[in-house]
Write a structure and sequence with these properties.
Elements (H helix, E strand, L loop, with lengths): L1 H21 L26 H6 L5 E11 L6 E7 L4 E8 L2 H4 L7 E11 L2 E11 L10 E2 L16 E14 L8 E7 L2 E7 L9 H7 L6 E7 L9 E7 L5
Parallel strand pairs: 6-7
Antiparallel strand pairs: 1-2, 1-4, 2-3, 4-5, 7-8, 7-10, 8-9, 10-11
Length: about 250
Amino acid sequence: MKKFLVLLLIACLAFVLASCKQECAHVDDNYDGVCDSCGEGVEVDVMTYAEYMAAELDSHVVIEAYVQDHQSWWDNKITVYLADEDGAYFAYEMACSEEDAAKLEKGTKIRVYGYKSEWKGEVEITDCAFNFVEAESYVAPAVDLTAKLGATDLINYQNQLAVFRALEVVKVEYKNGEPGDDVYLTVKKGETEYSFCVEVYLTGVGTDVYNTVGTLAVGDLVDIEAFLYWYDGPNPHITSIGKYISQE
């Protein structure tokens, strides 16, 4: 009789454990593909670029993309420029340890989760964190958007790495009046002026970009490579700049 009761108890316990396992809600708060409660693998619903762009502002989003560049790490946060084969993303102040920041090399694939936000026209992911994703490296080619300057659909290329050719320098201004912080570069194509920026947290003092901008004079012609950031209109973050050499 005792043996029967022991076997019955074991059977009941096994049934309870199996039931608990079957009823697990599979919570995955850090979107790493593993249930936080039971440790089982779970599928993560990752958005395509089109789905991300169609999502409402302030809604929760999960995307996978490749690191193209990033700003300086600080206070366990890092701002990252991302892209996939269909478009680009801007992850603002993404939660990140200093150790993980060192691993965010160009071409590295990551899964980012946070909230789709907008600030001054810039669509970005905020209150976000990430996981590394094993994949082949991918670096998006720069797209020539010279002909799109002034066009209403330029915003469709937001955050992509772009090239703008033969722009005429109108003005070079340092944020605080002298080198050491952001540099605001005003250029024009035809009769229309555009504002570009050397973001010091991206291309800091002492880099080729920062030094080259400091040598520009009104009337110089330049080719610029930049991430198409938005701030009340296009305000690309410059990553490379080349000055035309006078033939005179």
